[in-house]
């Protein structure tokens, strides 16, 4: 089934190595680990910045895309170097080939759509373990991902709003975009079906930052808009006892040779609910990433920097 349905994920062209030397590794530690629950084993990598132990630190959970592993995703996003500067932990759960032949997170399968089951429960359990073993600021635990990892990050934010404070989705899809492998291909090609999304049910809406290239031929850019609509809509539904007026502020710019449009969705009181970055000319690749990792585009706004800035400015509600 996977070989026919997900060829689109695995056939993506990686940008070529350009001969540039890789950035020096950050000063912290990047260790491997293994997490087990009653049904599955999950390998992971954990970056701990230098100087850890002097107080609680934020934690960012990073979910790689198809065809990647934890180390590759860390190289491509450059998140560890940023985490050293911001002094935060970064956890990289790693999908196994046994769970998916191409290491995709199973975002489209209904078995992984709800709290307490499947991959969301497994990743949430690992996150809680890291929080118990390290000094973590429980109010600043964010989750982000690319492609299938972006879709799974959205699911985690909606099913575990008590655990995570904010969500980052790069080239991913909304919760409930598909409930079958055939539906996954349709959503990736055409964008979200509102009727299908409605089946995901009501969930709390966490602050979300979305990146999507408008030249993405693997996951339709409409899916980025679907993530934003779903998150903002969930927030409004949970505030139905109060009037929630949303103001959209749009700005354009150019970074690293890529033009971009950023739309900020905020309440009139000033609270930001969502940031949507559309990077013009970018395909299915991490914006502003490093070429020593796969599925990256070194041009454009640095998605890692912008996500970390967003996460640091959106702690969990009291």
TrEMBL record:
InterPro entries, per database record: AB_hydrolase_fold (IPR029058), Esterase_phb (IPR010126), Plant_Biomass_Hydrol_Est (IPR050955)
Pfam families assigned to the protein according to its UniProt record, in alphabetical order: Esterase_PHB (PF10503)
Keywords linked to the UniProt accession: Hydrolase, Signal
The protein's name: PHB depolymerase family esterase
Organism listed in the record: Massilia pinisoli
Upper classification of the organism: Bacteria, Pseudomonadati, Pseudomonadota, Betaproteobacteria, Burkholderiales
